[in-house]
Write a structure and sequence with these properties.
Layout (H helix, E strand, L loop, with lengths): L1 E2 L10 H27 L15 E2 L4 H105 L2 H15 L13 E7 L5 E9 L3 H13 L15 E6 L4
Parallel strand pairs: 1-2
Antiparallel strand pairs: 3-4, 3-5
Helix pairs in contact: 1-2, 3-4
């Protein structure tokens, strides 16, 4: 009887192929053992010994089997590595996609935030510009009202002053000033004929003199200083009969009296 063992590695995976090889080795080993045992048994006279059947076994080279097993194992390992690498690549791609999606989301949110900030800044700038314009208009209106008020006050004062001058109150006041200064004037030794000096006087509403300065005069410096001293000694000066004639700074003409 001939036992034929056929092995097809392309029809089984690594584990099944290894089991098939081990099974074949066991079968062939048992057949070889039976053949050797039959040949070496002693002859018996009581019963004829049947002619033993020769078992032809396909001898498989152990090295070939080992190489095949190693090839299958390496193929299985390579396949597993390929699967692991593919899985790692998929995970890497998924992680990269997650990062890219997060980056895009952050960029969109930042862009939206910048748009909102720009809109808010524009609205704020417009509100501030409008508020400045309103404030400017209010200031201009207030200034215009103040100017009109001051102009009316000035016109009224000038009208009162004009009426006071026409009534002779200004002439009477200037005469009273000149008389009082003359009473307090220490005459220098030499006075030119027709002496006439214009004196700028800074005064308070009470007539108290703050400063006196001769601005124009046909007398020398000694005469001018003596007139200024006389004005200071005359403080407080006479006040006008009409308040419309009052001015902080007045100019009056000083003439000596006999």
């Amino acid at each position: 009887m001939t036992t034929a063992l056929a092995y097809h590695p392309d029809r089984a995976d690594g584990g099944d192929a290894l089991i098939a090889i081990v099974g074949a080795l066991a079968v062939h080993g048992f057949a070889a053992w039976m053949a050797v045992s039959t040949l070496t048994l002693p002859s018996r006279d009581l019963a004829p010994i049947a002619q033993p059947q020769i078992i032809e076994a396909e001898v498989i080279d152990a090295r070939v089997l080992e190489a095949e097993a190693r090839r299958l194992r390496e193929a299985a390992e390579a396949e597993q590595r390929a699967k692991d690498q593919a899985l790692a690549e998929q995970r890497a791609m998924a992680e990269q996609k997650r990062i890219d999606d997060a980056r895009l989301t952050a960029e969109r949110e930042a862009a939206d935030r910048r748009k909102l900030e720009a809109v808010a800044a524009k609205a704020k700038a417009e509100q501030e510009a409008k508020a400045r314009e309103v404030a400017r208009e209010k200031r201009e209106a207030a200034d215009q009202t103040q100017r009109e008020k001051e102009l009316k006050t000035q016109i009224a004062a000038e009208e009162r002053r004009r009426k006071a001058e026409q009534s002779g109150a200004l002439t009477a006041w200037m005469l009273a000033l000149n008389q009082k200064v003359n009473r307090n004037w220490l005459r220098p030794a030499h006075i030119p004929d027709g002496l006439e000096c214009v004196v700028r006087v800074e005064q308070l509403p009470t007539g108290d003199v703050v400063r006196a300065t001769v601005t124009r005069c046909n007398g020398d410096e000694i005469i001018q200083r003596s007139i200024e001293d006389a004005v200071l000694k005359s403080s407080p000066l006479p006040t006008p009969s009409s308040r419309a004639l009052y001015d902080r700074n007045i100019d009056f003409v000083f003439k000596p009296t006999k």
